[in-house]
Predict the structure.
Amino acid sequence: MPELNKKFKTLQKTIKSYNTKSDMDMLKLAFEFARNAHQGQKRMSGEEYLYHPLATAQTLAEMKMPMQIIIAGLLHDIPEDTDLTLENIKEEFGTEISNLVNGVTKLGTIKYRGIERYIENLRKMFLAIAKDLRVIMIKFADKLHNLKTLYALPRNKQIRIASEVIEIYAPIANRLGMYEMKGKLEEEAFKYLYPKEYNWLKQLIKEQIKQKEKYLNKIIDFVKLELKENDIKYIEVKGRIKQLYSLYKKLLRLDKDINRVYDFVAIRIIVKDIPTCYAVLGTIHKKMKPLKGRIKDYIAQPKPNGYSSLHTTVFTIEGEIIEVQIRTKGMEAEAEYGIAAHWNYDEKGSKKTTSNTKWITELTQWQKELGANQKFLENLKIDVFQDRIFVFTPNGDVIDLPNGSTPIDFAYNVHTDVGNQCAGALINNQITTLDKRLKSGDVIEILTDKNRKFPNPDWLKFIKTSVAKNKIKSSLAKRTLIDKFLKK
Ligand code: MN
């Protein structure tokens, strides 16, 4: 297996390039552990099975993920596909890594099977993400390699997996601001879902690039020179091509006329800080006239998923139209890796680096969009989270409740004692009545009274969940018994 060893060396090298303090012994151990577990197994493509977890780990390393995530990537298929168990992983690698692997295994049951299941799946994903974002990163990397070896599967499976990626994984990657990942997932899935269109577009792009390459280089040189003359330091000026699937979707809206797509190729300028971004914009506009209504300041007003950058579309000296994107290095990393960008170079406590509050804003924003964005739901004609709400504990844990739930429902869903001792509640730091209906995104804090032993029977009149109902009834039954006993 020299080929596999070589791949493992590449993995080590990739990790070392961004994380010099990483625990290579642990990684080696995980590699041997996985090799052992998958011994003799082959994938549908005929390849040694180990190629798959290795490719998953490699993708995670290229995303500059911390070591535990990469190790979990190496181990992710062991509980389900081998004789070794989660318990074995826990013994060898500890709770954190085994929890990650467990999360991936649980998500493994998500499959795209039409609209009804789709909603259920989205909800499952949503909850998994809220619980531990790292799990979804591993799942993305896993899916990406599955897509790359999709050729080995029968046509019906190809379509199912590709649809699952387009309908579930890619929108989530997008929502998390992981454009790079979204683009890769979509491109691979696109190939299988619409092979004719894919080949047509590939060919079209090839011709376009041939046509535009020269002039693109000319403009890049021109921009570099202008910046130098104005004493503006830049880190990089480069050309970039629009992601294949989003280009396809745009072309469908424009009668497949590529000449009407202004951002098919763009120039991207990376600089060190925000003031420099604006200075660059000024310099560009001095030399190249901007198109009306195409200047977008996503730095002052970032997109809902956090994307920030300056965009402008200009007439070049060659008389062509081109989009220019200006951003800092940090913004570039965010656009590529989204939320995951915050974990780079960070070995321990990766969860802490993404603050809980930012998380909550992002998740609730997503839900708002899902609820309001008809385009996204056009084909579904149904509100994904219509009948459920997601609320948060003060620590940022997500509680999934049916619509119309109250603080009492919340309390009993957290813990029976919290329910029984509930003396009041705060919603988003405001004192509230206990029959108040909760909204998605609310942060709920339950005030408890330790001396209180039994619930108020009146609560039964307004609560929504059967969990709360049953717990209240059984507590009240206990009280009746005790009362009887005391009277005697
Ligand atoms: Mn896998």
Observations:
- Residues 52, 76-77, 142 surround manganese (II) ion (CB under 6 Å).
- DSSP finds 21 helices and ten strands in the chain.
- The first strand starts at residue 236 and ends at 241.
